[in-house]
Amino acid sequence: MLSNKNVQHVWKTTKFDIVVTEQFNSDCSLGLAHHLKLPVIGLASHALMPWHYSRFGVSFNPSYVSHMFLSGGTKPKLYERIERVLFDSYLRLIYKFYCQRIDQNTLAQYFDDIPPLEELGRNIKFQLVYSYFVHFGSSLYPQNVIEVGGYHVQKPKKLPDDIRKFIEESQHGVIYISFGSMLRSATTPREKIETIISALRELPQRFIWKWEEDSLPGNPSNIYLSKWLPQNDILNVILETDKLECVVVSKWKGEEMCQKSAKWKSVISAHFSGRHPNVLAFYSHCGLLGTSEALYHGVPMLAMPIFGDQPGNAAAVEESGLGVKIEFMELTKKELLEKFKQILNPEFRAKVKILSQAWKDRPISGIDAAIHWTEFAARYPNFTYRSAAADVPLYQYLGLDILLILFGIPLLIIVLFLRYIFNKKKTNSTSKNKHKSKKE
């Protein structure tokens, strides 16, 4: 990017107020922002990365702070806590001594006197984190770490006619299946796909599945396949009650209401807030954006994490009550059917709907919060908003100096005292031996 002549022309000839840059695995853009003398807003489509904690002065205690790359959530077992400490330390070292060195050397080719990137990272005005406490639980974030989870969710658009028809004609509802854009269903081991299909055949629901091939093994008739699907629109497909002959409302008792009166329209509107009652669940790899869409629209999830931040997201899904988790490597037909039965339970779905309402019930939306604090930093660029914890040395953060004084000095006194006693006894013993030798 820095070597591109067009990009160079833009930053040299255009006046900017602020730099908004992704905070993932590179700090190269921080050097450009420093060169332009502009305040920086960090933006992430995920929770905090391991190296962000010290940068923003956020406490990372493996006993209760969820790790985005690992399972265990906020209640990890002993081996999970050990795993967190080792893995987190490894990632921080790799980032500091490999990633940042590459970025620092790259910046040195274009700019003079770029400070250490870790120092520039601590000067980020605000970090916008794609999380919210309703989903991930309460966190001890300083004031310059702002939760903006769900800011990407947009109002649903009208679905293509064939997808809408497939949903509305589903007598027992529809389950949406997607494993994201990076994890391709077609490259998943065939035995796992056959296990999933075998379980789906035993369910009365229909399925909409993002699949990169033209067919599935066995070509099940209850599955709609597509290489691309409007996920947000499916999870919140607009209910057109005037076109429905029968609506299955399964929130409370699952009874069929085959009436088109204003009474039933109001019931549907109150219970589902526009979401089609036939969209029952979301079977997903648990990417954070898709998870946020399911939470926003009140759709229960079956989370099957594979890699990256998905294990941490799945742990949050389970702890918050949005859904249940199933392990990909331990996938069986029996367990899959049990998990589907759990999330399709009307009581479970009712709780997810309440969770969705709590997610949306904010004094300010995620996108509005992101806009406000970005403009705030541009208006007051000379203020420092970081927590004092970001400047505390590691030995002070761990309290090593205090431990040294409280335990080290008393221990030293005890050691010196014991040594004195030992030497005194040794001296007395030597004196007695000499005295005895003289007598002989």
UniProtKB/TrEMBL annotation:
Record's keyword annotation contains Transmembrane: yes
Keyword Iron-sulfur appears in the UniProt entry: no
InterPro entries found in the cross-reference section: UDP-glycosyltransferase (IPR050271), UDP_glucos_trans (IPR002213)
Gene3D superfamilies documented for this protein: Glycogen Phosphorylase B
Transmembrane segments: 402-422
Swiss-Prot/TrEMBL keywords: Glycosyltransferase, Membrane, Transferase, Transmembrane, Transmembrane helix
One Gene Ontology MF term: UDP-glycosyltransferase activity
SUPFAM superfamilies, per the entry: UDP-Glycosyltransferase/glycogen phosphorylase
UniProt record similarity statement: Belongs to the UDP-glycosyltransferase family.
Full protein name: UDP-glucuronosyltransferase 2B13
Phylogenetic classification of the source organism: Eukaryota, Metazoa, Ecdysozoa, Arthropoda, Hexapoda
